[in-house]
Amino acid sequence: MRTPHLSPRDFEAVLSSYVAARRGEGLAEGTLVYRRLYLAHFLSWLKAEGVDDLRRMAPEEVHRYAVALARHRYRIGHGEATPERELSPETVKMRLLIARDLFRWLMTRGLVLADPTASLRLSRSRDRLPRQVLSEATMETLLVAPSALTPIGLRDRAALALLYSTGLRRAELSALDLNDVDLTEGLVHVRRGKGGKPRLVPLGQSAAEELRRYLTRGRPHLAEGHRMPRTPALFVGTGGPGRRNQGGRLLPDGVSLLVRRTCAKAGLPHPVMAHALRHAFATHLLRAGADVRHVQRLLGHSSVVTTETYTAVAVKDLAEVHARSHPRGGGPRTRRPVRLDPRFPAP
Fold first, then answer.
1. 214 noted as active-site residue
2. Which one of 95, 155, 169, 219 is the catalytic residue?
């Protein structure tokens, strides 16, 4: 079905319409930000190459764009001393897949007759394993690092406990309201999961106790500085410069800052992202024998294939245990003394 008043020559209008359409289909805002950014770069590159009409896009241009991405270099930070980096193969592939999705969307609306990205041969790469999964001992250290005597400390302890107990993403934690948590039944209602999909997640007893302490002794002090009508947000922030937003919803970036600050306080050698607690949640469950499909539902994955990434981590961990402990595992171990039967002579 052709979209009226939308020209394949108007790149800005095409990009805005594409993003609006994918938003209407339930794509997460964070995902849309990156799609818009990557497609803006792609469309800008096309204009620089002399392509001003998406109907005239040829497969050759797509292949040249793939080469340009592979050769692209960028710097993090300022100054000539900052080393240049190249895009990872996964990032190049993701950008090309987003360009392909754009042309498939254009085809469904009759704005182009052919998909110039169809000839791209993108190898199916295996999902990358988490670089480092936090151990159970490290998690215990992290969870008790914030102070239990201050409102911010109580909030941080509750947020960390909830992330580890439920495996929520940072945006899902930020979006929680007071009525989304049932401490009596021990359930968390994630109403705005990835892709707009809701789910119910059980809440552990330890996390429930941290939440009770935060709700009774921490949140009232943090929320009282909010000038607007009282926020329904479960976790509230302390505001930015000038404290103008004190008592408002704790945003996803605030969750990341909370985790990094706690890592430093706990003495961890390297800071970790909030997503690391989700990795730890899934890996520790699987290591303890949880069924992968149950973990899939808890994490909110659409496909069990995504969840099976964590089974590789758990199996790798078990393999290391086997190597250390099995008599023929090949690793160092403590040998038990051989007890000879007194009925038989020693050799």
1. no
2. 169
310 belongs to the catalytic site: yes
3-class secondary-structure state, position 125 = coil
Which pTM value belongs to this model? Answer: 0.61
CA dihedral 287, 289, 290, 295 (to 10 degrees): 30
Spot the catalytic one: 35, 157, 249, 301. Answer: 301
Contacts of 74 (CB under 8 A, 6+ apart): 84, 85, 87
Q: Annotated catalytic residue: which of 35, 194, 226, 249? A: 194
Residues 6+ apart with CB under 8 A from 265: 145, 146
**Would residue 278 show up in a list of annotated catalytic residues for this protein?**
yes
194 tagged catalytic? yes
Give the rounded distance of the alpha carbon of 275 from its chain centre. 5
Q: What is the pLDDT of residues 118-153, one digit of tens each?
A: 887 766 555 555 556 788 899 999 999 999 999 999
How far, in Å, are 61, 126, 152, 170, 258 from residue 218 at the CA level? Answer: 57, 43, 7, 20, 15
pLDDT of residue 93: 86
- Catalytic residue, candidates 18, 38, 214, 310: 310
177 — pLDDT class (breaks 50, 70, 90):
very high
Q: Which two tokens stand for residue 246?
A: 């004190």
Q: From the candidates 157, 278, 279, 284, which is the catalytic residue?
A: 278
Q: What structural domains and CATH numbers belong to the chain?
A: 11-108 (1.10.150), 136-325 (1.10.443.10)
Whole-angstrom Cα distance, residue 219 to residue 158?
11
